[in-house]
Amino acid sequence: MTNLRIAVKEDCPRLMELVHELALFEKSPEEVTVTLDEFIEAGFGAKPVWKAFVAEVEGAIVGFAVYYIRYSTWKGSRLYLEDLIITEAYRGKGLGKLLFNRLIQEAKELGFSGMVWQVLDWNEPAINFYNKYEANIEAGWLNASLSKEQLLNY
């Protein structure tokens, strides 16, 4: 039996394990630089910036979806899905669908103008999953970022 619920602070060590599992899957384990303390502070500190739903099977967290509010000058407030992670042993069992549907419900309940996320162009299972929702997968946008170190240079 699967239980979906809002993440709590005590879930963070397990959520970070799943983040690391996702980074391995995405062939970028060295890119995870956030510490557990930073992760906890960002979700449960004085100024929380993310929320998450967790999927539990028999009391164990096997997946989660972390999101935050993104504002678009063109579209208004939107739910931004940062990560949807299901541990490998539980993929293909409908848990991603449960979490994704819960996010859609959340976006509607909060009155957002939509929901946005990114997907790697080589991640065919994820692309196929999102296509079932008739998602618009855009081409032509390049991701840009500055690291903490780069910020300190300016």
Automatic annotation (TrEMBL):
Keywords: Acyltransferase, Transferase. Signal peptide: none annotated. InterPro entries: Acyl_CoA_acyltransferase, Diverse_Substrate_AcTransf, GNAT_dom. Residues 2-153 form the N-acetyltransferase domain. GO terms for molecular function: N-acetyltransferase activity. The keyword ATP-binding does not apply. Belongs to the acetyltransferase family. This is L-amino acid N-acyltransferase YncA. It comes from Mucilaginibacter pineti.
